[in-house]
What does this fold into?
Amino acid sequence: MKSKFFKSLAPLLFVNFFIVSCANIIPLQHRKNNDESAKNQVITEKNDSKNQILPKLGTPNNDLVQIDENLTPIGNIKTINDLNNDLSLTNENNNDVLENSAPKNNHNLGNSSISTIQNPFLDKTQIENLNLLSLKSLVKSNQPKPKPEPKLESILEQNPVIGSEINQVVEDLPIEKIPIINDKLDISKLSDYDNKSAQKIGFDLKYRVPANTFSYQPFVLKSNVIKQENDNHFLGEKNENLNIYLLDKINTGSVSENENVRQTNFGYLNPRFRSNYFKPDYLGFRSLDYSDQRYKEIFQRNIRFSTGTAILLDSHEGESAFLTNHHVLYIRQKPFWETMAFPLMRFYYKDDVNSLASLASSGILSLFWIKTEYDRQIQELKARHDRIARNQFIYIDPITQEKLTKFNIDLHKRYFREEQKFNNFGKDVAIFYFNHAKFREDIKGIFDFYEKHKNWLLSSFRYSNGETIENDITRFASQFKIFSDFWDHVQKFPPLKISEKSWKDGEIDYTTKIGGFWPQFAFSKNMFKGVYIKNGAPNFFVTNGPGASGSGVYNTNGELIFMNQLITVTKKQKSLYYDQNNLTSHMTTGILFRNDKIDLVSEIKKFYYDKK
It folds into this structure.
């Protein structure tokens, strides 16, 4: 029965497994409870005012793309070559499919059970759900701590199924023979696997996360199914000292620790799945140490934002252009900066992973609001009087939830903008810009305001547990220093080159590929060999997971060659698994920029800066 099932499998999108957008899963800081109602108060610099600052905010979760487990594939069905953000909607609880229409510039996919769960989980402190009527003093408050609000329901977004511009009729059609570099290895000439421990990259970190988030579990492969490259014999064109996975020898019996991973059918441990979706006989992989200096600037191109990862394309006069997945840029049809969550950014710099907390989670958003109101009233007083009395009181008006939301959105719109003229040809690709110069200038203004009025601010504004904002501001200032140094460095990078290679179905590529991926709380400097083109998309194995969507994959010369998009998991799978080399077991699918039908390379380059 199982054999018959696998023989009946149709192309990629018609099989019974999940495809998960590697979007976002991020760490939530410990939050002080700031949900108590507020009163009108008077602010002076004599410390006789006591006001609560704005609460720290939550984060949306990743979106999931679900494929019906009970789907029976039939022959002669046209398929699409990639998934993007525009997919039909399925309710997570009952799998009812909601009707949607596809955009006019794309083909509908008939007779398909493909569906998406657009599930950006919102924490109770997410900005659009703040239970905050005004700023309130809690310095002398003896009110009991309010009970936590119940968990919000998952929010689903309706997205139509998109057909790609390339259609295949049947899987059995003959594929043009593509030359493969180093097609056959002499296993006896490879070095034995040294079983050296890989650097911890963050999978072991524990944070409070939504219940519908994947956990990560380690497992161990037996050493007899892994070899290593050496100077005399290697995979592809060059020795990179990668671990070589002998795929024809690997199966569920190759696991020596944590047998739970055997239940994951759609990865390199399943020969039947692999023979259909990943034809290479070998896989080369290493998660490079952070201190490894090879290709350092290429790894720095992939930058993590709150909802996913983006590729640094070009910079000019303090602003940078980014390429990412459409599903990373838009959450519930809004750009991610309209619901900005923790962290604002993560980046690889000075041989380490660095983060900049979101403005809301660090207390900085509160200072922006206070400073804005303070400056406004000072200007009004100056307009009415020649001078301002030393004992002049300044009133902070009550702030409604609607007003707070708009303030946060408008603030981030100063720094981020989307490129609406970009034609993605129906692919899950989008472009946006970040003005880091303006952002840094404004933050420095906030620091100046804080230092000038520090005593007043620390005595007048506290969290509900009595703590001041001092520790959060100090922590953010330390992060901001590294953040500024990073942008001083990467804004000097030349415009990113994009490979002009046009890919063909059935192609196998063993040349070295690299890319920094940000799955959940981890960061992996992926170096790998082994790519298989299936249905117009690259399939490969690297360290990957929610949060790494939008990551660029590069050649060693620094050219962008394709983009990360999705991972494959079983329908009821709750955990993702990584081996002793940090390689996750599930397969990754990406997005190509060129084939015989489209040319995204030329389209992307239209939006580089004109520096003439």
Q: What stands out?
A: The CA atoms of residues 175 and 506 lie 6 Å apart. The chain is about 20% helix and 20% strand.
